[in-house]
Design goal:
Length: about 240
């Protein structure tokens, strides 16, 4: 009987080693304090008002909410969902689907391995390494995208009111283009810069219903290479620069 009693802790310890307890998703909320998590194996939900949020690595779905706190995520393996008002967001590497909503904070995703969706008001969006589909919507923030070579068809959909857009394409890029921009009479140069051989057509000058200034529509269409990817761009008064690296 005595032997049985002292063996129970040993048995429990051995069972814990054989069957480890999996970490649950982390839920943490604060108003003023910063949040720093070096490793979230199962992801989690983090929220802050003015405190900054930093995540080293997340292995599961990660949801982050801030008002003015800055956000820095080093590695996100699961889906990533971020909402911020004025905080700056930096993501070093996101391999899952990424969805970002920001009012005035700048957004930078250094590497997006999954589909990405970014919507901003006035913040600047920078995505220098894109592998899959991307959707960008902006009011006045500038947008800079760079497409990495990919093995599958993808859709690049960019829309802005007055932000300037720059799209870098790989040297062997193949895609079809559907571009519609607007030009004001006071603007002396076309809002499109490209050397891809796209067919550019200019519409007639018409009075803008919101002002006395005349505007015209600029369209650019065409196929480059095998035409696999689909590039859609819409802008009211912004400019578009297409660069084939």
């Amino acid at each position: 009987m005595y032997w049985f009693k002292i063996s129970l802790p040993v048995l429990a310890f051995g069972t814990a080693l054989a069957f480890p307890v999996w970490a649950a998703p982390q839920n943490q909320s604060t108003t003023l304090d910063d949040i720093s998590q070096s490793n979230l194996p199962e992801g989690g939900t983090l929220s802050s008002v003015t405190g900054n949020i930093r995540v080293g690595a997340s292995g599961g779905p990660l949801s982050i909410r801030t008002v003015s706190g800055d956000i820095h995520i080093e590695q996100s393996a699961g889906s990533l969902d971020v909402r911020t008002v004025s905080g700056t967001l930096t993501v070093d590497h996101a391999s899952g689907a990424t969805e970002i909503r920001s009012a005035s904070g700048d957004v930078r995703v250094n590497h997006a391995g999954g589909a990405a969706s970014v919507r901003t008001m006035s913040g600047k969006s920078t995505l220098p390494h894109l592998e899959k589909d991307v959707t960008i919507r902006s009011i006045s923030g500038d947008t800079m995208l760079t497409l990495d070579p990919a093995s599958r068809m993808r859709t690049i959909d960019i829309g802005t009111v007055s932000g300037n857009m720059t799209l870098h394409l790989p040297h062997d890029f193949g895609g079809t283009f559907d571009i519609l921009l607007k030009q004001r009479r006071s603007e002396k140069t076309l809002p499109l810069e490209q050397s891809l051989g796209l067919t550019v057509q200019t519409g007639v000058w018409e009075k803008n219903s919101d002002s006395s200034e005349e505007i015209r529509t600029i369209t650019a269409t065409g196929k480059v290479g095998d035409g696999r990817d689909h590039v859609i761009v819409r802008s009211v008064v912004g400019t578009l620069t297409l660069v084939q690296d």
